[in-house]
Amino acid sequence: MNIVGRTQEIEELERLYNADNSEFVAVYGRRRVGKTYLIKEVFKDRFAFWHTGLSPYDRDKKFLLRDQLQTFFYSLQDYGLRGEPCPKSWLEAFRLLEKLLEQKDNGEKLVVFIDEMPWMDTARSRFIPAFEHFWNGWAAKRDNILLIVCGSATSWIEDNILNSKGGLYNRLHREIKLRPFTLAESEEYFRSKGIAMSRYDVAQTYMVLGGIPHYLSLFEKGFSAAQNIDRLFFENKAMLEDEFDRLFESLFKNADDHKKIVRFLSRRRGGYTRKEILEHTGIQDGGGASEMLKGLEASDFVTSYYPFGERKTERYRLSDPFCLFWLQFVDGTGSRDVQFWQKNAISPQLNVWRGLAFEELCFSHIAQIKRKLGIAGVCSSESSWLVVNVDKKQQMDMLIDRADNVVNLCEIKFYGKPFVIDKSYDIILRERVQTLMDVVPHKKSIHLTMIVASGLKQNEYSGQVQSVVTLDDLFV
């Protein structure tokens, strides 16, 4: 099987295929994360029916229902349906699917794959009731159907399939949320394609693309990481130049408001409260705003959290590396230098970006950090913390607040050589430790932890550091 990682997901899909009764599974996750590729590689020539919803991007929406039914009919014909007219409703369409599957039934498992299902649920189409009737009234009564539904509009999947309060309530047998590759999986992917890349450059690539398999697949062998980034973003008609707009247009009906929120969140690393978001974007308060924030979080663009020591005011921060990169370096720049990344590789601008992007990378690899610290099984919460006093600000990159009465105060640095703590930085670290000691319960200990790409140089100031996590540790 030509696929990197996804071992647990593959085993689960095979188990469902070999089950003695009909199974209903939802596979979902961020767009471009590899959902369709996974299903295709696992089942190959075992599909009884496969249909992909028609993307709403750049489409005239008043024709969408007709177009969705027409393309569904084409898929039915591709898999062998003959002598039937094009359906005029989803009830008719799913009845035709039942007829096709009855014709194909030879006692073996019938794999039915409906990809990008959220796109099929157009306004006033009554798609959901028809789909419910297909599963409850026909497929669930048989013992050889494996129904797989898939979608990138994660909030739609959650609302209509996972948390359905209607006809699909408690009908789903398994849900599989596909996550972006980890650093280790990204490295494995590049190696499988014969692309030579150091871990330092794999990490930088991750900071740009966020471990999204489709984006990684666009890298070409024989080019450096910097050359590939220029190819994807900065050369004329670059492949990912318009990807930001395509992402949101394909996922959300009110894409412009979603993009407003994301653009606003990109201004500050620590994010904003719901009230601040609404005030600055002009989006009206109410259910619509809540649904937008929920949708952005479900699709892994935004993360909600409570700052350290707070449990009243929730904040939202932009956490998707691709969006963070695109908004800083591509959005609104107009004519660009086609070799921008190569020419500015060691510029102060890119060095600042690397520092902040590496912090985000560390938040997405908390499991690896905790494993290195020997606390993989300890419950914890993670957040950054900005302390604003009268005379100064203190930014704590990451705090791991542990159930075993320890708080790891993590300083995160992305350097190509071992990091050196000098006298002035030693003073800063001691001040931060003291600030934290002043607010945490006395029963908790503070462990100063350095997360440094190339390690920490031992000297007279490194003694107060309790633990060191390196880039290699994040590749486990």
Describe this protein's structure.
By secondary structure, the chain is an alpha/beta fold. 41% of the residues lie in helices and 16% in strands. Helix 5 links the parallel strand 3 and strand 4. Helix 8 packs across helix 17, helix 11 packs across helix 12 and helix 12 crosses helix 13. The longest helix is centred in the C-terminal third of the chain and has 16 residues. The mean pLDDT is 93.
Topology record:
Layout: H1 7-17, E1 23-28, H2 35-43, E2 47-52, H3 64-78, H4 90-104, E3 110-115, H5 127-137, E4 145-151, H6 154-162, E5 174-177, H7 183-192, H8 199-209, H9 213-216, H10 225-234, H11 243-251, H12 255-265, E6 272-273, H13 274-281, H14 287-298, E7 302-305, E8 315-318, H15 321-329, H16 340-343, H17 348-363, H18 366-373, E9 380-388, E10 393-402, E11 406-413, H19 423-437, E12 445-452, E13 467-470
Parallel strand pairs: 1-4, 1-5, 2-3, 3-4, 11-12, 12-13
Antiparallel strand pairs: 6-8, 7-8, 9-10, 10-11
